[in-house]
Design a protein that fits this description.
By secondary structure, the chain is an alpha/beta fold. The chain has four domains: 3-124, 3-Layer(aba) Sandwich (Rossmann fold); 149-309, 3-Layer(aba) Sandwich (Rossmann fold), CATH 3.40.50.300; 314-395, Orthogonal Bundle (Helicase, Ruva Protein, domain 3); 407-462, Arc Repressor Mutant, subunit A, CATH 1.10.10. Helix content is 51%, strand content 13%. The strands form five sheets. It has a five-stranded parallel β-sheet, sandwiched between helices. The protein has a five-stranded parallel β-sheet with strand order 7-10-13-6-14. It has a two-stranded antiparallel sheet with strand order 8-9. It is elongated. The model has no long low-confidence stretch (mean pLDDT 89).
């Protein structure tokens, strides 16, 4: 049982083939030229096309070329009474499944159709198998059975089916890229590329070149044309991590791309159409940044059509045992070991605050598995700040004064103090200072401007 589309300008052939294949129980539709066939395909898909080559308005070769742009695996059999080596070569080059000359033997054509449908079934079965594997692997990497994580899983499954832009927020180490990849893998775009870029890792000029590409001669060193990531992600998904670190000028350019769905490579005069779903992520409060005029409000609303917020690990502590088990298995497999977590060590891990979230827990387990020489991971394999963690002692060190405290002002002063100290220790080198503060250089520069101390780095470099 198959949906077959017969395309031929001769009514006698349309009637003959309709009779032949409907007798086998197939659903048959007919069109008298390639253009009408494309319209019918857009309205309702087919499993296989049997088409003449010579037709008015749009011939079979033109139709095949158009079909392959949107349905690369659709079965297409071409027929012609004017066979030539050149026509056959072009047909197979464009991806025709078979080529038969009129007048043809009906039984031979039926055999060709059956083999083409069997080939389609194998392709679809293989695709379904790969998709199932990818889906299981992608979602399996996001571990958690808490109510908050179950809500995240449901959201991922829901938004995967639509094309809207998604903004994933959460602290560093919560797994924002895993969520983005799961959305892609569960979506109709799963067979196409998933392209990821950290917007905070590039200067404004380099980020523009990475995202939009450039043409030869656009700048010094541009010795050839280079495809941008938006173009590379055509048909798939582009993940813009740390979008809050993007400069104001780049925010304007990105907004235009999202509105127009077109990009212009650096140095080029012409634009190109792009088809890439955008998923953005940040650990910053973009809403507050719009209020502070450091992030465009129109871009914020453009990228946050569907927001997904990942809770920090301390807010879903019930997931820690599952995460421990997951990471122990992962690193046991890598190291060829079979260690388990001792109850005492597990208790320490479950009480810790995990300011670095899932990523910090993962690195801690990796370290412990690598260092452990016994059958059970002992507390001694954990870093001192984890084994010595005492939330009661820490809270006692931060007792409020009797007359209270201006928390916002206090935190800003503390922030400024750490920034100045990092600059002092790095001799005014902003890159090294950002490393000390565990943040992108762009974020550090934002803090320098916020506290009006940008000139400090230059003064410390010159020793003034």
């Amino acid at each position: 049982m198959a949906k077959i589309l017969i395309v031929d300008d001769e009514q006698s052939y349309r009637q003959l083939l309709t009779l032949v294949f409907e007798e086998q129980g197939n659903t048959v539709r007919t069109a008298m030229n390639g253009r009408l066939a494309l319209e019918m395909l857009a309205a309702e898909p087919a499993d296989i096309i049997i088409s003449d080559v010579k037709m008015p308005d749009m011939d079979g070769i033109e139709m095949l070329r158009a079909v392959r742009e949107t349905q690369p695996d659709l079965g297409v059999i071409l027929m012609t009474a004017f066979a030539s080596v050149e026509t056959a070569r072009e047909a197979f080059k464009l991806g025709a499944d078979d080529f038969i000359q009129k007048p043809f033997d009906v039984e031979e054509l039926k055999l060709i159709v059956r083999k083409t449908l069997e080939k389609q079934a194998l392709i679809n079965e293989n695709r379904a198998f790969k998709r199932a594997q990818r889906e299981r692997g992608s979602v399996k990497n996001i571990v958690g059975a808490s109510a908050k994580m179950n809500a995240i899983f449901q959201m991922i499954e829901t938004v995967a089916e639509v094309q809207s832009t998604v903004l994933v927020t959460g602290e560093s180490g919560t797994g924002k890229e895993l969520v983005a990849r799961a959305i892609h893998d569960l979506s109709p775009r799963a067979e196409k590329p998933f392209i990821s870029i950290n917007c905070g890792a590039f200067t404004e000029t380099l980020l523009e070149s990475e995202l939009f590409g450039y043409v030869k001669g656009a700048f010094t060193g541009a010795n050839t044309n280079r495809k941008g990531l938006f173009e590379a992600a055509h048909g798939g998904t582009i993940f813009l991590d740390e979008i809050g670190e993007m400069s104001p000028a780049m925010q304007v350019k990105l907004l235009r791309v999202l509105q127009e769905r077109r990009v212009r490579p650096v140095g080029a005069h012409d634009e190109m159409q792009i088809d890439a779903r955008v998923i953005a992520a940040t650990n910053r409060d973009l809403k507050k940044m719009t209020e502070d005029s450091t992030f465009r409000e129109d871009l914020f609303y453009r990228i946050s059509v569907i927001p997904i917020h990942l809770p920090p690990l301390r807010e879903r502590a019930e997931d820690i045992p599952d995460l421990i088990e997951h990471f122990i298995k992962k690193f046991n497999d890598q190291a060829g070991k079979d260690v388990v977590m001792s109850p005492k060590t597990a208790q320490i891990l479950e009480k810790y605050a995990w300011h670095g979230n899932v990523r910090e827990l993962e690195h801690t387990i990796e370290r412990a598995v690598a260092l452990e020489r016994t059958a059970e991971i002992q507390p001694e394999r954990l870093p001192d700040h984890i084994t010595n963690y005492n939330p009661q002692r820490i809270s006692a060190e931060f007792e409020l004064p009797e007359d209270g405290i201006n928390l916002v002002s206090h935190l800003e002063n503390l922030e400024k103090t750490y920034v100045v100290e990092a600059l002092r220790q790095s001799g005014g080198n902003q890159t090294k200072a950002a490393d000390l503060l565990k943040m992108p250089v762009r974020s550090l520069r934002h803090l320098l401007d916020k506290h009006s101390i940008r000139s400090l780095s230059a003064q410390m470099r010159t020793g003034e």
